[in-house]
Amino acid sequence: EILKSRNIKFLVNEGKSLDSILENLTVYGSLTGQTKKAEEVSRIYRTKLENIKEKISKKPLNKKGAFLFSTSPMMVFNSESLPGQIFEILGIENISKGLPGGRPIVSPEYLIAQNPDLLVGSMAISNKDDILNSNPFVKQTKAAKNGSILIVDSNKILRATPRVIDALEDLYAELSDVK
Prior knowledge:
Number of domains: 2
Structural class: alpha/beta
Number of helices: 9
Distance between the termini: 50 Å
CATH architecture of the largest domain: 3-Layer(aba) Sandwich
Strand content: 5-15%
CATH class of the largest domain: Alpha Beta
CATH superfamily of the largest domain: Nitrogenase molybdenum iron protein domain
CATH topology of the largest domain: Rossmann fold
Mean pLDDT: 90
Largest sheet: 5 strands, mixed
Radius of gyration: 18 Å
């Protein structure tokens, strides 16, 4: 509203999906006079994303998991979020599927019923112990019993930039080694 009142042009741009992140590159290129360079970067990352998807389709992770936003209360990213889309590409069934809200709260009973193979923490979650000690029920999940709890740098996975595609590739390699 302040920018409007001062007649300053602005653009509100969100990258809520991998496709929109790549589409935004061309917008930024147009705004900065770097259209050709932006289109090239977008093409390179689109090809990289397709290659990653093809690689994963041959060997999906076939796990059930949760991408945690916070531990107290335990909140997870839903399937429509960027982390949810990343889980889908990786072949991870998101336990939040069907729960209402963008970052639904997961009750201990729901967590036990879903019994995820994998828990991934981000945002304010700085280490695995934050997840393990957040709730005594976490330790009863397959994820805890198998040591399949990871922390992902939120700068890599939640910022709507092409780096998310790089992080997707790294995350697949890391999760391929998880039990």
